[in-house]
Amino acid sequence: MKQTVSRGHTRPLTEISFAEDGPNKTLLVSSAHDKTPQIRNGETGDWIGSFHGHKGAVWSAKVDKLTRTLAATGSGDFSAKLWSLNSGKELFEFKHKHVVKSVDFSADTLHLATGCQDGLLRIYNVCKPSESPLELKVAATPAEGVSKIAWSLVEPDVVFVGKKSGVVEKWDTRVNSTTAPVASVTIPGGENIMDFEQSANHNILMVASGKKVCSYTVDGMQLLREYDMPSPMTFKEEGGVSLSPDGSKFIAGGSDLWLREFDYQTGEVLRIFKGHHGPIRCVRYHPSGTVGASGSEDGTIRLW
Questions:
Q1: What is the model's pLDDT at position 142?
Q2: Residues with Cβ < 8 Å from 281, sequence gap 6 or more?
């Protein structure tokens, strides 16, 4: 199977994502345990630049999809950082009290959300980064811990929160709605939420947890489909899931070395991609739907 291998990271990958950057051009954003998030050409995998400044593993990296001029990262050094995408310069450091596991920009780029292992979801004003953030207590104990966050693509004030306890919640970030989630579901099996991804076009939220991939409606959080992953693949320690842009199939990778493509309707395995030398830790489809990307414990990103 033809593949492009992108080297540059020296430690296991933690997160990858694509950001469209004008007609027929995309950026591939990656974070890893090597402390240095990177930007690549989304079509070729070629390195464009790196962000230097974190002192611990970087768990999450995102580009703002509206202007493509800002990037944000969350790290094990108890900080999140705001960067200039064009120059790689650090613009601001948001200090936290624990490991920052996940970051995401709002659709209008005006706010940055961070999910921290102290149980807080923080919402920062990107235009006034020194202002104190809105803080929502989304996890009461370390066992509940925040594992993944993302701004809703259909509800501009809502942030999805995935937890170690196997729960996905929706939190309204308006000040008068911060006492409890507006919706909550427990994923079948109740294991750590390793990854989720939204598709606004299809109103689908794909979730990877334990030994399963599940799909839910984005707006109502109704369970649509539930898939058991082929043994020995699990999402207990690593892995991810991504729905194709046309909604007909999804890719998933986890504890074994293979990336698999599945039929969305039936769950049938359509293709298996072999090449990584370590467990797969993150996956995403290219916006065109013709390419899938995977990041591994072996320190490489592969485009299939």
A1: 82
A2: 12, 13, 14, 238, 239, 240, 253, 295, 296, 297
